[in-house]
Amino acid sequence: MRKYPLVIGVLIMLLNLTLTLSWASEQMPNSAKALALGNAGSALTGGLGEVLSYNPALLSYANTGATVFYTNEYAIPGLVEQSVSVSFKTGKMHWGTMIIKNEAALLEERQGEICENKWDNLKIGLGSSIKAGRNLSFGWSFWLNTQDIVITNDPEGLAGKDSRYYLNAGLSYNRSRFGLSAVAEGLLDDDFSQLKLGLRFGEPGNLQVLGELKYDLLDGKLNYCGGVEGWIAPNFALRAGVDQAGMFSAGLGLGKGALSFDYAYRVHPAGNTHYLSSGYRF
Known about the structure:
Blueprint: H1 4-21, H2 32-36, E1 65-72, E2 79-90, E3 93-110, E4 113-131, E5 136-150, E6 160-174, E7 178-185, E8 194-203, E9 207-216, E10 222-233, E11 236-242, E12 248-256, E13 259-266, E14 273-281
Antiparallel strand pairs: 1-2, 1-14, 2-3, 3-4, 4-5, 5-6, 6-7, 7-8, 8-9, 9-10, 10-11, 11-12, 12-13, 13-14
């Protein structure tokens, strides 16, 4: 029995779930810490290289080190996201680089044979930031976004490979109990553009509340998200938030010496998802 139309429909559904339902016009999630806070990451200081994808200006406040991230999005078999990042410093410049890979695999039965249809999305980013005074920093990040769709016997012409480049720019103003951030995303790509304004109230490492406004330049929509983080012990934090789709998220953070571990759980109609991140400070 031919299942080709069904497979194509499911593949398109997966792409829509990945690109539309989850943070439209925004990078895919890649920080369990930010995700537990409703994905309000543009004003979240104190991370590692993963801050590059939320606000490159935060590299000035990031630790040097490396992170890895993994999730099986919506618990759908074959829909996986993983990333690795590295942050470092040269002189007064703070740098970060990141690789994000998303993939979806679907098996199709055709005339007794099993054929694999795939969607791969690879993002490679490089950015830096510099402080302008004690409390203000500026940053940029340059990204290459490559998408590859492979479909067995593709008369509709849906398969193919496409690459795009885009630039993000941000600034961050931080004091001990207050932070303000602004980010412009997709400056070189008209199909991927939004502005973000992030706020932080409270003290990192103790109790802080984060909020974020996101304005999509394509459809003119204003979205918001936010969360709260409380450290109940020097190496243990609890987090909760609501993302821009109104979905609830929660998580925790653990630290031991140079090692850190973050976990997030997000509720979503397409499927509840677990997110895992780990980091090591150099």
